[in-house]
Each structure stands twice: as structure tokens, then as C-alpha cells.
Automatic annotation (TrEMBL):
Localization (cell): Membrane
Basic and acidic residues bias (residue ranges): 20-32
Topological relation to the membrane, as annotated: Multi-pass membrane protein
Key words, A-Z: Membrane, Transmembrane, Transmembrane helix
Lineage: superkingdom: Eukaryota
Taxonomy of the source species: Eukaryota, Metazoa, Chordata, Craniata, Vertebrata
Region (Disordered): 1-32
The name this protein goes by in its record: SSPN protein
Organism of provenance: Hemiprocne comata
GO CC annotation terms, alphabetical: dystrophin-associated glycoprotein complex; sarcolemma
Gene (UniProt): Sspn
InterPro entries, per the entry: CD20-like, Sarcospan
Feature: compositional bias, Polar residues: 1-11
Bilayer-crossing regions: 42-65, 77-99, 111-132, 183-205
Length: 231
């Protein structure tokens, strides 16, 4: 008898565990504020911090090559924006999760993270466009070294053609080689950062409108339908 009672208790415990595991409400509550087993913005914030730091450092290195480079050609500003987005993501990790976004702080930080991710996406796309345009121009340049600068022309046969002058450059060959490499790196890093920011915006939107609220809104209906079927 004792063995039979222990078996029935074990079977009852297993059934309870299966019910709790298969409960859609508890699963949705856990998935609503976690992603891949961790709090949502952790992976995106780490990627944004690494990419933003790389873009910023590379932008300042490009600015050190020549003092005549424009701000649009040294997109450290895009890297700074992405770094700020990652910091907001880390702040979101420090805020305790509340269902339905009951606290003003949680809602404000989530909104800031979404808007700044969208801003970072736009900035990175602009940086890619500027770098690609400059790279295409440099592929057609004909450069000559003049004292303390490098003078480049798009069309040497045209006397009225546009001339680009890179100040503080003693060697045109090394300048064009390094600048082309930096521009390619900027295009690659900013493109990856733009994809990360786009993914963050998409996951934030999905987390807000498709996971939590749809589950809470439709779960009572499924529960009442199950109860009717049982009756």
C-alpha cells in the first residue's frame, strides 16, 4: 500500500510539473522580458557598444590623417550615437521588470531605447552613404603631391574640374591607401551597426505588441473556451 501511495504521489507531482511547464500564461510572462535566456537588451547593447566604440575610434583616426576631411567623411558622430544607445540598453537592464509597464521609468527607458535605436539606424545609414560616395570618388582620383598637402582631381583633362586638397599629407600614395582602407572599414562597421539597430527596433516592437499584450488579451478567451469544452 505504501508503494502504491508513493507512486500515486509521484504521478500527481509529474502532472503538476507538466501543467506548469505547458501553461501558456507563465511561458509568455517569462518570454515577455527575456530573449535567448537573458534579459532582452543585453545582447544588442553589447553589440552596439562594441560597434559604436570601433566606429568612433576609426572616425577619429581618419580625422588625424588630414585636417581638411569633412565631418561627414569621419563618422565618429554615428559611433557616439550608437554608444549612447547601448548605454540606455544597459540602464534598461538595471530596471526591475514590471508587467504591463506599470512604472513610468520603465516605459520611458523603453521608449528612449527604441527612438535612439531608430536614430542610430539613420545615422549609420548616412555614414555608409557618405563613405561609399567618398570611396567611389577616390577610385577616380589622380593625385599629385604638393608641399604639405595632396592635390587630387577627378578629371585631369578638364581645367575647370573639381580639385580636392588633403592638407597635412606628405605622401599621396600612403594617404589614398589608408583612406580607402578606413572608408571600407567604416562602410562595413556602420552597415553592421545599422542592422543591429534595426533588429533592436524590430524586437522592441515585437516584444511590445506581439508577445506580451496579444498573449494577455487572448489568453482568457482560450481559457473560457477550454472550460466550456470540459463542461
Amino acid at each position: 500500500k505504501s508503494s502504491d501511495s508513493s507512486k500515486t504521489q509521484d504521478s500527481a507531482m509529474k502532472k503538476k510539473q507538466k501543467k506548469t511547464k505547458g501553461d501558456p500564461k507563465t511561458g509568455q510572462e517569462e518570454e515577455s522580458h527575456t530573449c535567448c535566456g537573458c534579459r532582452f537588451p543585453l545582447l544588442f547593447a553589447l553589440l552596439q557598444l562594441a560597434l559604436g566604440t570601433s566606429i568612433t575610434v576609426l572616425g577619429f583616426l581618419m580625422a588625424g590623417i588630414s585636417s581638411s576631411l569633412l565631418v561627414r567623411d569621419t563618422p565618429y558622430w554615428a559611433g557616439i550615437i550608437v554608444c549612447v544607445v547601448s548605454l540606455v540598453g544597459f540602464v534598461m537592464l538595471c530596471i526591475s521588470y514590471q508587467p504591463d509597464e506599470k512604472t513610468c521609468v520603465q516605459f520611458t527607458v523603453k521608449l528612449m531605447y527604441f527612438l535612439l535605436s531608430a536614430l542610430g539606424l539613420v545615422a549609420c545609414v548616412l555614414a555608409v552613404a557618405f563613405a561609399a560616395h567618398h570611396y567611389l570618388q577616390m577610385s577616380k582620383f589622380t593625385c599629385d603631391t604638393i608641399p604639405d598637402s595632396c592635390q587630387c582631381k577627378l578629371d585631369t583633362a578638364d581645367p575647370l574640374g573639381r580639385t580636392f586638397v588633403y592638407q597635412d599629407a606628405a605622401d599621396c600614395g600612403s594617404l589614398t591607401t589608408m583612406l580607402n582602407l578606413y572608408l571600407l572599414l567604416q562602410m562595413g562597421l556602420n552597415l553592421i551597426a545599422a542592422l543591429v539597430c534595426l533588429s533592436a527596433c524590430f524586437v522592441m516592437w515585437k516584444h511590445r505588441y506581439q508577445v506580451f499584450y496579444v498573449g494577455v488579451r487572448f489568453y482568457p478567451l482560450t481559457a473560457t473556451e477550454g472550460q466550456r469544452q470540459k463542461v
